[in-house]
């Protein structure tokens, strides 16, 4: 699932297939020293620098024509501190490897997103999140960061050390330096009981505040052209462990969620007029189920059907209005939307450019099957979400620029001032950062 990075002509492509770049050179440093040397050399050669993980961003945030730094040799756990309950991990470690390694040690992150292919540094740099009433994004669980800055020096930061860098670099967009290691807060491994069940759209909207308040982790998927949703409630459990059976898991997670869904997407792409009928069948394919397992087996799921995505964080209080407007727009537009709309939440955090910075947030994510024209749908959705002062996910498709972000992020100027200090010559600049942070 990693990005095909070594095309014959040196072309790099992202996972969604909608972004490509031709870097002047690609480097895979095996140590922090080698990475710092690569940054210094790029600077001497007048080339810009961009680290790239597994290419799971749908924006061009990792694209460069300069030096592409691949962190696949910077992986593994550096240190587990059971007294402070933290784990320090190398930047290129995939989340799925971190989750499995922590579980073997009897430990876990508190919360995570639903895809675990990304590297830890890529996930935090773009603000990857799951859903939670009290627990926030992966970046909100960071206790310390190490990064190589534009002059090739290694900078450590935490709440006590370089706190202004810590406030910004936890979701740093790759604009402040190259992350080499991250220290996460962890806790003893626990169990979650997941309750998944279909629920009418109107009922979820009417009862949303209650569903949010009663569950540690609540999310739902709405299938456009239908009145149907699939809801998922994850709550801590005293056990016993009751994982999804192997056959049932394969039928639900592989055959239906990936296999049949893939075929439905192909059919919808070939015959758009059939999409509403397909959506009615898709939305009823998954039946209710309850299971209890360790966190990463509940929070994460395989995503083999490739798509392109836009996601906005709106103030939580604005969620139901925004969703009703989205439904009305789809009904009136003649658009054919074959992918469900995903809805999650996060509490306010104190990270400068986190999508939940300073406000309780709800996330609305719209998707289109890879290879299907998505501009008309995303443009119409974006108009609605931006009207609610929505903040787009940094790694997902959007058209907003620095002027817009200066309005919706109260601490935007704090971030750009720090960037001026750490990277005055814009070594880590690319076209995407020029647009979202300003020149």
Notable characteristics:
20 strands; 24% strand; five-stranded antiparallel beta sheet; disordered N terminus; globular; 439 residues; eight-stranded antiparallel beta sheet
Walk me through the structure.
It is a single chain. The protein has 439 residues and is α+β, with helices and mostly antiparallel strands. It has 14 helices and 20 strands. It has helices spanning 32-44, 95-104, 120-125, 163-169, 201-206, 208-214, 246-270, 275-282, 295-299, 319-333, 375-387, 402-408, 412-422, 431-437, and strands spanning 12-13, 20-21, 25-27, 49-51, 67-69, 77-81, 86-90, 107-108, 142-148, 154-158, 178-185, 187-188, 191-200, 217-222, 228-237, 289-293, 307-315, 341-346, 361-369, 391-392. An 8-stranded antiparallel sheet has the order 16-13-15-14-18-19-17-20. A 5-stranded antiparallel sheet has the order 6-7-11-9-10. A 3-stranded parallel sheet has the order 3-5-4, covered by helices on one side. The longest helix has 25 residues, at 246-270. The radius of gyration is 21 Å and the shape is globular. Mean pLDDT is 92; it is low at 1-8.
Across the major sheet, the strand order is 16-13-15-14-18-19-17-20
Poorly predicted segments: 1-8
Rounded to an integer, what's the Rg over CA atoms? 21 Å
What is the average per-residue confidence, as pLDDT, rounded to a whole number?
92
Write the layout of secondary structure elements.
Elements: E1 12-13, E2 20-21, E3 25-27, H1 32-44, E4 49-51, E5 67-69, E6 77-81, E7 86-90, H2 95-104, E8 107-108, H3 120-125, E9 142-148, E10 154-158, H4 163-169, E11 178-185, E12 187-188, E13 191-200, H5 201-206, H6 208-214, E14 217-222, E15 228-237, H7 246-270, H8 275-282, E16 289-293, H9 295-299, E17 307-315, H10 319-333, E18 341-346, E19 361-369, H11 375-387, E20 391-392, H12 402-408, H13 412-422, H14 431-437
Helix pairs in contact: 7-8, 10-11
